[in-house]
Amino acid sequence: xxxxxxxxxxxxxxxxxxxxxxxxxxxxxxxxxxxxxxxxxxxxxxxxxxxxxxxxxxxxxxxxxxxxxxxxxxxxxxxxxxxxxxxxxxxxxxxxxxxxxxxxxxxxxxxxxxxxxxxxxxxxxxxxxxxxxxxxxxxxxxxxxxxxxxxxxxxxxxxxxxxxxxxxxxxxxxxxxxxxxxxxxxxxxxxxxx
Length: 194
What we know:
Elements: E1 7-8, E2 14-17, H1 20-37, H2 41-46, H3 48-53, H4 65-70, H5 79-110, E3 114-117, H6 119-140, H7 160-181
Antiparallel strand pairs: 1-2, 2-3
Helix pairs in contact: 1-5, 5-6, 6-7
């Protein structure tokens, strides 16, 4: 995998160059993320009014560490307040994460080796890259106090490929932030007359 990041071009477009392997990895993991965050269809059927206004009366603190990291408790010291907050917000958060993943998948599907993003798509990519990083970090049990040790993983360690992907997503997210804020850009094309 070559390490290409997002760039803002001289024509003010945000682009990412990818190869087949990178697009395959991105597509597969975004599809898995979409499945992970998708709201429970059975809960929607049980109370259509609650679904219409975005309330999830069945929302509970997730057992899955990745979901818990994506949908943390709002109040660390108050279970009741956290449960109430989750009931009113989790459905819309899941829907937003799912929509972002859908935008990323659509941009991957329509693109070849050069992915060009509109500003709205760039923000969806930011959200999805963050969600992917949080999910992978959870699966790796990656914490602030053990992060550096992952750089010394042996290539035979089963966590090695996941950490490489996590590191790549971190790089993509960072370059996308820079492209959005104008901190990194491609140099202007030289004049034909010079």
